[in-house]
Amino acid sequence: MAQPALADHPPAKAETEAVLTDTIVVTASRSETISRDGIAPPEQIALPADAVAIAARTPGGALVGNGALSGQLSYRGLAGQRVLGRVNGQRFASGGPNAMDPPLHYAPSILVERIDIARGVAPVSQGPSLAGAVNAQLVETQFTDSASLTPQVRFTSQYRSVDDSYAVGGLAGIANETVRFGVIASREEGEDYDFPGGTAAGTSFERNLYGAHAGFHAGPGELFVEYRRSETDPTGNPPFALDIVYFDTDFIQGGFRGEIASDVFLNVKAGHVAVRHLMDNQTTRRPAAAPMQARATFADADTSTLEGSLRFGTSGAYFEMGADAELTDKFVQITNPTNAAFFIDSQPNVQSERVGAFAQWRGSLGALEFELGARLDRTIQSAGTPQLGAAVPMGPRGLAAAFSAADRDRSETTVDTVLRAWLPLGNITPRLTLARKERVPSLLERFGWLPTEASFGLADGNIYVGNLDLVPETAWIAEVGFDLENDVFSLRPTLFYRRVDDFIQGVPFDATIGVVDSPVEMIAAMNGDATPLRFGNVDAELYGADLDFNVRPIERLEISGTASYVRGKRRDIDDNLYRIAPANLRLSAAWLGDRFSFGAELVAAADQDRVSLANDEEPSDGYAVVGLFGRYALTDGLAVEAGVENLFDTGYQPHLAGRSRVGASDVPVGERLPGAGRGGWVRVTARF
C-alpha cells in the first residue's frame, strides 16, 4: 500500500495502518498498487470521471449514480451528508441544492493520487461525521532528500469508447529537501454513453481543473499553501429536473504542519471554498422545457474553515487535542430565463456556523492497542427572508410569508465518542469499534421552505419540503472483525450494527396522504406530485457484513475481491430503509508479470426486493458484469493499460442509479439509468 504524502504532521501509525484505514491507490506505479489490503487496484478498470466510483469499490461501498460527475458514496447503507467527504483534507459545502457537486466532484480521477476511507467510523479528529469519512488526495510535488532542485513530472491520459470520452492530466513541479512547488491540470470531456439497447441521452460531461501548490520546510515542519480552480461546463444530469450549466469553484488552503518540539506536533490550517453554480433545463436537456416551465437556478456556497491541533507523543502512543470552526453561507434562487419577473429565493442566505473541539488518545494496554476520542460541537443555523418576483403565484407567496414569520434560528450541541481497539496476535488482528455519532440536520433539510425536488441527490422524482423542527440524528455503532494475513492469503471481514435514533428521511407531509388540503400539497400537485414528502425524524437500524480478501496461490497469480451486505430497517414502523444497496461482490484474478500483467474482473449484485414501501421504492434485479484488463510497462516510469468493460454487453440497472428525466433518450422517462454497455479503454501513465 502506498504511504501518504506529507500528512498534517508526521503520520502516526494509527493514520496509515490498514487496520484503521482503507487506502485505494489510483495513479501510482504498478509496484505500488500490488498491495495486500484486498482492495482491487484501479488499473483493472477505466478510470471513471467521477472519483466516487473508485471509492465505492471499498468493502461496504456502493455508488449512488446521479450522472457522470455527480455520484455519491453509499457506505454501509448511509450516503449523502452522513459520509464526510474531503479533498486534500479540506471539508466544504456543496453548491448545488441537489448535490450535483458532492465533494469528490472536485477530484478528477486522472489527478487523484489515492483515496483514504476511514474503516467503519471516522476518528473524532477528522470532524463530525455520522458514518465513515473519505478523502481524495490529489497529486502533489514531494520533498526530496537532496539539496539540488529536481523536476517531478506525472502524466496520465485515457480514452473510453463507451462514451467517446477522453481525460488528460498531470503534475509538473520542482523540489529539493527544503522547498517544493508544483502545478496540476486536467481536462475531461465525454459524450452520451451507450448501453445495450441504445444511448443514455443527456449524460455528456466536460470539466477542467488547474492549480498550484508550494511548501517550505521550516525546520522539521512545513509551511504550505495550495490553490485550485475547478470549472465544470455543461454536463447532463438525467436523474434531476435540471442539468449543470456550470460550476466555477475556487479552493485555497494553507498553514503549518510538523514538529515544534521533541515529540510535539502542531497542525494549523485555514481554508476557503467558493462555489458558483448555474443549472437549467434549456442548455443540454432535450427536449428543452417549454417557456412556462423553463427554469434556471443560481446557487452560491461559501465555506471558511479553521482548524488546529497539538499532538504529544510518537506513533505508538500519543495524546492529541484540537479545535476547528466551519462557517457556511449558501444562497439559491430559482428563475425563469424567459420571464425576468419570476424568481424565488428557495434558500435565502442560509447559514451554518460550527465550532468544535476534540481530544484523542492512542495507546496500549499490554498487547491491546486502542484509539479513544471524544468531540463536542456547537452548531448555529439560520435563514434569511425569501424574496419573490412579481410573476410568482400566490401559493409560494403564502409559504414564503409563513416561513418569514417563523423562528429561523436554530442551535444544536452534539457529542461524538469513538473507541477503536485491536489486538495484534501474529498473523491475525481482532478488532472492535464502539461509537456514538451525531449529525445536525442539513440546511436544506431544515430550511427548504419551498416544495421542490431538491433532496441532496436522492433524485427520485419526489417533491420534498424542509422541517424547522428536526432534531439531530444519533447513531450507536458497534463493529467487530479481524484482519488475517500471511505470505499467501489475507482476509478482513467485519460485522457491524448501527442503531440510529431520529434518522432523517422523507415522510408523508401529513396524515391525509393523497388529499390535497394544504398549500404545500397544492403547490406540489401543480408540479406533478400530489403526495409530497417532508424531511422528518424516524428511527432506524442498519446491520450487515463486508469483507475483502487477497490470495496468491502461486507467485504470479493474484485473486482478490470484496463482498458487502447491508440491511436497513425502520424501527418506528414495519418498513425497510430507503435506497439500500443490494448484496454485491467484486472478484478479480490477475497474472502479474515483470512488465506485462493481465486479468479479468467480475462485478455482481443480487436482487434488491427489501425496499421502502413508505417511499414507493421499486425493487431491482441482480446482475453480473465481466471486464478484462491488461498492462504493459515500457519502462519503470511509462506504462500502457487497456481493457474491455462489460465484455458480454450485459444489460443491467444498478439499484442506486437515479431515474432518467430526459425525454429524448433511449432510456424511458422514470426508468433507472442503465449501466454502460461493452466498450474498450486505453490509458497511458508516465512519471519521471
What oligomerization state is this entry in? single chain
The CATH superfamily title: TonB-dependent receptor, beta-barrel domain
Please state the CA-atom Rg, rounded to the nearest Å: 24 Å
Low-confidence stretches: 1-16, 30-38
Number of strands: 31
Number of domains: 1
Strand content: over 45%
- Helix/strand/pairing class, anyone? mainly beta
Number of helices: 6
CATH topology: Maltoporin, Chain A
Overall mean confidence score, pLDDT: 93
Distance between the termini: 20 Å
Domain TonB-dependent receptor plug: 55-134
GO molecular function: siderophore uptake transmembrane transporter activity
Motif (TonB box): 23-29
Subcellular location: Cell outer membrane
Quick structural summary:
With 688 residues, the protein is mainly beta.
Textual characterization of the structure:
One of its GO terms (cellular component) is cell outer membrane. Its main location: membrane. Residues 55-134 form the TonB-dependent receptor plug domain. Belongs to the TonB-dependent receptor family. Residues 222-647 form the TonB-dependent receptor-like beta-barrel domain. This protein is mainly beta. The protein has one domain (13-687): Maltoporin, Chain A. It is 5% helix and 52% strand. It has six helices and 31 strands. The strands form four sheets. The protein has a 22-stranded antiparallel barrel. The chain has a four-stranded mixed β-sheet with strand order 1-5-6-4. A two-stranded antiparallel ribbon has the order 2-3. Helix 4 (394-405) packs across helix 6. The longest helix has 12 residues, at 394-405. It starts with 12 loop residues before the first helix and ends with a strand. Residues 1-16 and 30-38 have low confidence and may be disordered.
